[in-house]
Give the backbone structure.
Amino acid sequence: MEKIVINGGNPLFGQVEISGSKNAALPIIYASVLVKGKCVLENIPDVSDIRTSFEILRGIGAKIRMLARNTWEINCTDVICGESDYELVRSIRGSYYLLGSEFGRFGHAKVGLPGGCNFGVRPIDQHIKGFEALGGRVSTEGGYVEIESEGAVGANIFFDLSSVGATLNVMIAAATADGVTVIDNAAREPHVVDCANFLNTCGAQISGAGSDVIKIKGVKELHGCTYAIIPDMIEAGSFMVATVATRGSVKITNVIPKHLESVTAKLIEIGADVEEFDDAVMVTSGEHIRRTSVKTLPYPGFPTDMHPQMAALLCTAEGTSYINESIFENRFRYVEELRRMGAKIKVDGRIVVIEGGTPLTAAPVIATDLRGGVAVMIAALTCPGTTEIGQIRLIERGYDDICAKLRSLGADIKKITVPDEIPFPQAN
Ligand code: EPU
């Protein structure tokens, strides 16, 4: 088992390059199942959720090979429907995109229910509603979702809520459906736009991605292409927040500043300086960081995926801050870990209340989930002493080489290998 060890207290300084977006790369990788031919995907982050996805696709017959560190060729010409590995599928969330791509390509699909970070109940009813509208007969039994049909057909779909996963899944299935699909109340996240751009580069006819109405004219076939994934806005936001938390100054490159606007606005509001360039942002902390209130919202609002990192930063701010988590019912497991580090932080319903200004102290903690793990890393970077972080595989699901990147900014951070923990004997 590996742990991350941080000797905190050093402000971050220098320049760091952001990797490709995990949450854009995942749907694009699964969407390539629709393509008979080779897709060359550039700017793919080296993270475990992507490696797991490659294993899932190889298991159904995809030929996948690395052309350079972040460039992969995927050839799904010979994939077989319904044969994906149950355990691999349930180990990540993004595997649910295989439903949309198998349904779109074969007219039927059989995929295990997805896993992913534990934020309480994460239903997929909107995905199912979309597949049913496209003519699928959907059943969930024995841990699998199965879709049967005579082929996906275009339809009008109005989602009950803004769902990134449901929007992408239905868009993927509809790309090769018979007829026109209109998705209303679609998610507007940049990764939805990125997947639409990828599919269009393969010959799809999708318009409106990035707005709340997406129109998809189904095409008979998609062809291979070369496509570069957008930069990861959450990785970039995490480095921006870590810079301010440690009172440092960092130029963050390979970003799309527009995607970072909600984070940039909050950082400026609390006393940091953010300078925007064409494909970079320069973040410099102010001496005094002030309290604020944050509400997580669908894009272009403040991302739920930046909530735990922002909470860690606000532990270092002056005054009492509030974070209202409006997307996930229980994205608060990191709070307990920050409390171990001396943070005055509590959860009241869906609101996190943070009394800032109390210095944090090093403690043994764990990554409770992907972003919660990075929140404790940020907390550890701010305080003197040695913090050991366990369960770091959860961080490595979505951050490409995070220790090396932080080290290059002056952080005293390393990974160590420790013997696997022996479970406590259970009382009968
Ligand atoms: N929801 C439903 N029914 C559905 C789908 C969603 O009720 O059928 C609810 C969810 O429970 C949640 C809200 O709608 O309350 C939004 O969920 P959404 O579908 O947008 O989230 P997701 O597709 O499960 C993706 C990302 C998450 C990110 C969210 C929100 C991937 C693989 N996952 O999840 O990423 O938090 O969108 O932006 O893209 C992460 O990267 O750390 C992460 C958790």
